[in-house]
Predict the structure.
Amino acid sequence: MDRRAFLTISVAVATVGMLPATSALAATRLDIFTDSDANISDWLANVVKPAFEKAHPEYEINVVIARDGGLDAVAQRALAALQTKADPQMDFAEEHDPNLPKGGIEAGLWTRFDASIVPNYARVNRLAIQSPYSMPYRGSQVLLAYDSAKISPADLPRTWTALVAWIKANPGQFIYNRPDKGGSGGNFVRRAIHEVNGRDPQVFKIDNFSKEEAQKRLTPAWALLGDLAPSLYGKGTYAAGNTASLQLLANGVVSMVPAWSDQALQGLSQGVLPPTIKLVQLQDLALCGGFSASVIPSIAAHRDGALLFADFLLSEEVQTSVLKDLGGFPGVDWKFLPDALRQQFADVIPTAIPTFPQGDWEAAVNDGWYRNVAPNLQRS
């Protein structure tokens, strides 16, 4: 068994499910790094690991938790290993931006994905691909969660214009959280920004920010959101976070809120949200979302095994688990999921997956919202 020495890094790193060093199994260990939350690392260790090892007994999976900057440090070590042609001591990173470390792509640090090396890559949802050097296998998107006991399907808003009209026609029945306190409210604000910019998410790029451009692009959205404020719950009250919005919906205080797909789906499956809560997505332009994209070092000692693992993550078995067990969105096109699941989630299958840059744009959105939409709200 390959028992490579683990690089010492100056951050907290833990391992899940390592086999004892005295194991007699002649299996090759794949080090699978993750900095995701505990629900993801637990799912990798308790669901994906045994299923993969059963399908490929020649490998054992070692889930390595590297949160709080740990994975960035490991990626830096991998780049240094590339330069010295050494073992990067990482076979696969479950969620990592291939643009980090800076210069890594140009140096050849990451594997370029295609169907020739990962056959199931041909199934990946084209809308989810942000870079050929990262493989999207699960995602989440902001949806509208609503109480079907109060809102009939015929009255559901499916465009931004219809949503605004519904909010005004049903004062006090809609709320979103402060944009700096959770992505559900934050992406509702971004959808307003997209609306006043021709519904074109490509207008906003990480490298095209300027104060002048922000003033031009964001100011009309503040007027739109300010006009909505009197029709919101509390005539301009904003929830403290993603969970707070869903709690107000679950308790019948409001009838509709923006919500993260994974959080809402898990809440429904666990009975935290009542069964009358349903989900729908806008069809003119969806609310923002994103995908967790995996990377494989080009010099991984067990690159062939890592590619097998990548292919396994895109299998129907795992993609179904992403939806049913994690409440996430599949990384593959929905047509590759069982018919029953496609029918069950027909109202939330996106026709687009808009994104919005972080950095200076994110700060401008948050600051501008407080100054112009909720000037009397103390920021904390």
